């Protein structure tokens, strides 16, 4: 949920800004580029939550980490590994999610535009 709360509004804002700058609606490839940036940014800022989730999922059953307390898991990582621990794997995550945002949101926008066009023609 936190990832989506960052990604989708940012994607829409980037498309609106690009559209305003060129004075017409963005093309699907431009939407895909906006999706890549939005996904990459969302991936970066939510990495600590992903680290905590992974720690909780991999924790030994019955341990205090396995209880599912995200704030406690974040605090443990911070104490033991500092900022680097909270952002472990951030660059591969940004890369993968940016690519996914490019493909998924670009394809979504292309499909949306095609369906709008079909709807206009059938009216």
From TrEMBL:
Localization, UniProt: Membrane
Q: Where are the Solcar repeats?
A: 26-114
Chain segments annotated as transmembrane = 83-105
Q: What is its main location?
A: membrane
Which keywords does this Swiss-Prot/TrEMBL entry list? Membrane, Repeat, Transmembrane, Transmembrane helix, Transport
* Topology of the protein relative to the lipid bilayer: Multi-pass membrane protein
Is-annotated flag, keyword Membrane? yes
Q: Which reaction does it catalyse?
A: S-adenosyl-L-homocysteine(out) + S-adenosyl-L-methionine(in) = S-adenosyl-L-homocysteine(in) + S-adenosyl-L-methionine(out)
One cellular component term from this protein's GO annotations in UniProt: membrane
Q: Which domain of life is it from?
A: Eukaryota
Q: Which family does it belong to?
A: Belongs to the mitochondrial carrier (TC 2.A.29) family.
Q: What does this protein do?
A: Mitochondrial S-adenosyl-L-methionine/S-adenosyl-L-homocysteine antiporter. Mediates the exchange of cytosolic S-adenosyl-L-methionine, the predominant methyl-group donor for macromolecule methylation processes, for mitochondrial S-adenosylhomocysteine(SAH), a by-product of methylation reactions.
> What protein does this entry describe?
Mitochondrial S-adenosylmethionine carrier protein
Supply the source organism for this entry: Cebus imitator (Panamanian white-faced capuchin)
